[in-house]
Amino acid sequence: LSGGLHHFRQAPALRALGRDEALPALAYRVPWRVDRAREPTLTIWNVGDEPLHGLRLSMHGDGSVLFGTTTRVQPGGHTTFRINGCLSPASIVTLRWFRPDETEYLWRIAL
User: What's the pTM?
Assistant: First the structure.
């Protein structure tokens, strides 16, 4: 809009749940388990109950991350990432993924 005006969506009105309506989920549990047994190679396991896709691991600080072209990890499946460079107790990576409904999530992992 012109003139510096902004349009905001109005929040839906609060209402009581019906007798047969389920409570909304309060939180989304991180569906990953990190296996560090072969550092600097990390194996990331999908311990959730849905396939996940669009995985990317970003290194914060010195170093880089090498991984294959995993586009989808099924429940119970895994993918492997190799960290190259200077690792310290302060090293952190961020894992990004998408759920089946295309919602994007980020999870920081201390190394």
Answer: 0.69
